[in-house]
């Protein structure tokens, strides 16, 4: 009789009570296992609203030509192996963790906003004049910020949202890079996606962890490590992400890179306030710092440097675009910025010919010499 260990070695994994046998397994140099599974076997279709869902193969009005991301964009690409046609690459989770952005309980409605944002620090840019929004695109550099506690994380992302915490109907779609030891068992920057339909209460999750996001790409693995990162004072490595609403299907599509390689989509039916359009767009950095270990750990954002250090030293978001009522992505003419803990993380607007209206963000976070032992930042 085969032991569980042998089954894992052979590429068989059991999650959520459903057995899935991969077509093949790719052993990444960084220790990740990338399982190639049939697209129809992904967890998205366990969602009660997606039981009879028909996969949209490709975004509407996008030429169906073969597109590829930058060579070796993710570390598992170094193997030279690829997932077969009709399959998707899925990073195997050997140590299951919370699928949400923090461990939660079911709160009373007035507790939702406080629970969802407790410990979270932001340095972001946002649209000033809110209208109906149908998409956004941005280019931002990738770093590996120092995050000492396994219970914290640091990320850079784009958000599209509608609804509010107060009415418990906040809907979001989010994507970017993230460093999280508890989730990925290392400190590498990794591609991530997230969504919620009720303010991070009962719905939503990362990547393909739970039903929701439908992946179509056979070349990009959500949750896998990004192959290169930026160097302080040296070469900057950035990524371009675009999220937009498909005019025909209504789904929110995600694409990566300057060639806009489609990764997959969030079906419109899983949302409420975001089913038709978004009312808010944000770009920037987020850190979860809770100091649960009571030893004043470090949690950097971006490069770990403040925004005023500028290009080559601070993290940036560049070439910001938004699609409004005409559904066409156009350069953002103006935007606001906000940093809720400016002593730890800052944000600064800038403009030039190459990046248009853009901004820098980040910071070192609480320093050991500045904090009281055991103090938790709310």
Automatic annotation (TrEMBL):
Neprosin PEP catalytic domain span:
114-370
Task: Kindly indicate where the leader peptide sits in this chain.
Answer: 1-19
Kindly give the Pfam families that the UniProt entry links to this protein: Neprosin, Neprosin_AP
Q: Which InterPro entries does the UniProt entry name for this protein?
A: Glutamic_endopeptidase, Neprosin, Neprosin_propep
Mind listing the UniProt keywords for this protein, alphabetically? Signal
- PANTHER family from the UniProt entry: PROTEIN, PUTATIVE (DUF239)-RELATED, PROTEIN, PUTATIVE (DUF239)-RELATED-RELATED
**UniProt name for this protein:** Neprosin
């Amino acid at each position: 009789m085969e032991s569980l260990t042998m089954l894992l070695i052979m590429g068989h994994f059991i999650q959520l009570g459903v057995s899935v046998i991969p077509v093949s397994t790719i052993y990444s140099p960084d220790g990740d296992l990338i399982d190639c599974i049939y697209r129809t076997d992904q967890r998205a279709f366990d969602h009660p609203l997606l039981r009879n869902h028909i996969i949209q193969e490709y975004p509407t009005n996008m030429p169906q030509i073969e597109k590829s991301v930058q060579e070796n964009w993710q570390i598992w690409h170094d193997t030279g192996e690829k997932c077969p046609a009709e399959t998707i690459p899925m990073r195997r989770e050997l140590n299951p963790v919370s699928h949400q952005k923090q461990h939660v309980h079911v709160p009373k409605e007035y507790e939702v906003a406080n629970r969802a944002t407790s410990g979270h620090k932001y340095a972001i840019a946002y649209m000033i004049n809110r209208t109906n929004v149908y998409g956004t695109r941005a280019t931002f550099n990738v770093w590996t910020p120092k995050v000492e506690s396994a219970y914290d994380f640091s990320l850079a992302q784009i958000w599209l949202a509608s609804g509010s915490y107060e009415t418990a109907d906040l809907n979001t779609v989010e994507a970017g890079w993230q460093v999280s030891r508890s989730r990925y068992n290392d400190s590498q920057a990794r591609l991530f996606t997230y969504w919620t339909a009720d303010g991070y209460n009962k719905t939503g999750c990362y990547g393909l962890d739970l039903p929701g996001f439908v992946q179509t790409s056979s070349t990009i693995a959500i949750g896998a490590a990004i192959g290169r990162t930026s160097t302080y004072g040296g070469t900057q490595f950035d990524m371009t992400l675009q999220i937009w609403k498909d005019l025909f299907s209504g789904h929110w599509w995600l694409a990566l890179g300057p060639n806009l390689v489609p990764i997959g989509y969030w079906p419109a039916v899983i949302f409420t306030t975001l089913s038709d359009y978004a009312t808010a767009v944000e770009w920037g950095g987020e850190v979860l710092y809770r100091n649960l270990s009571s030893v004043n750990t470090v949690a950097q954002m971006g490069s770990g440097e403040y925004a005023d250090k500028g290009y080559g030293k601070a993290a940036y978001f560049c070439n910001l675009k938004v699609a409004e009522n005409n559904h066409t992505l156009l350069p953002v003419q103006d935007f606001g910025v906000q940093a809720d803990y400016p002593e730890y993380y800052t944000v600064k607007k800038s403009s030039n010919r190459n990046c248009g209206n853009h901004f820098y963000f980040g910071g070192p976070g609480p320093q050991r010499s500045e904090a009281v032992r055991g103090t938790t930042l709310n």
